[in-house]
Amino acid sequence: MHYEGNIIRPPSEADSILLQVTVGCSHNKCAFCGTYRGERFRIKPDDIIWQDIAFAAQYCKRQRRVFLCDGDALIIPQKRLLAILQAIREQLPWVTRIGAYANTKSISMKSEEELKLLHDNGLGILYMGLETGDDETLKAISKGATAAKMIDMGRKAKRAGFKLSITVILGVAGRERSQVHAEATGKVLSEIDPDYVGALSLMLVPNTPMYADYCEGRFPLLGPEEMLRELRTIFANTHLSKGLFHANHASNYLPIRARLPKDRAAVLNLIDQALAGRVALKPEWMRGL
Q1: 137 domain-assigned
Q2: Domain at 144, CATH number
């Protein structure tokens, strides 16, 4: 397989065939993210992609899923992306699902009919970074979208038939707007009603705007208890029809996996027990990105 730069994928795609179809991220401006700093976004040549699909056809017959890397494969023009999906279906007939990252820009650039066609050709799940439902925080982190846009594009993806997984970040609003961010995030998640929610805890990365703000005293990094209180507020304000809420990323202090709505009371009680000191938190040395 031909890989360039940093290759990232969602935790749930750990066992997937990682097919890199783009390099970098089409947005690449988020204040907290250093993954693609200095990397010019580009779509990889078709001949390289076809070679990698042929490699997977020969050597990846035990893997049932494909993830299209890097930061935003959905932004590939429709005809090219459709051809990639069709090549995967033809050469990897055992694959049951294809996934990709998406953002509001890439979803808005395709019509609902185009999205449905992509879904019909195997693209089954999209991963979208909401980070926060608070418009002021979205602007501060240079996310490039409003909460209303997040809701509209999330719903559009759902109408097209995709499974939708949304990421939010604990601590991303700092201390002053912590609870505002948490309440707004829960409400936006409820409006979208995704299939999966993944809550991560902010870990500052050198050479990013947010890290610089932290070093110069303009941005406070929340402590474990503050992160937990934020998580509780987000969870309490999130109402999914039948989604999974995960907070078991390596960055989190308290691993949580809940099926909503049935696990709501049990999870709120677990968080309360942790806040009261009766449930141990993950030590700092075990946390990571």
Answers
A1: yes
A2: 3.20.20.70
In a domain? residue 66: yes
User: How far apart, in Å, are the Cα atoms of 171 and each of 28, 185, 204, 228, 234?
Assistant: 20, 12, 10, 10, 12
Q: For 109-130, how does the pLDDT look when each residue is reduced to its tens digit (9 = 90+)? A: 999 999 999 999 999 999 999 9
Kindly write down the DSSP assignment for every residue of 176-189, as one continuous string. Answer: TTHHHHHHHHHHHH
What range defines the domain where residue 94 resides?
Answer: 11-276
Tokens at 38, concatenated: 């200095």
Distance CA 260, CA 237 (A): 12
In whole angstroms, how far apart are CA 32 and each of 2, 59, 109, 250? 28, 36, 25, 17
Angle at 49 between CA 10 and CA 60, to 5 degrees: 60
Number of domains in the chain: 1
Range 254-268 average pLDDT: 95
Q: What DSSP line would sit under 104-161, residue for residue? A: HHHHHTS-HHHHHHHHHTTEEEEEEEEE-S-HHHHHHTT-S--HHHHHHHHHHHHHTT
Residues 98, 124 contacting (CB under 8 angstroms): yes
- Confidence band for 39, pLDDT divided at 50, 70 and 90: confident
pLDDT tens-place string over residues 219-254: 999 999 999 999 999 999 999 999 999 998 889 999
Give the C-alpha separation, 183 to 132, whole Å: 9
Tokens 């027990």 map to which residue?
Answer: 273
Please classify residue 221 by burial: count the beta carbons closer than 10 Å to its beta carbon, then call 0-12 exposed, 13-18 middle and 19+ buried: middle
pTM as predicted = 0.96
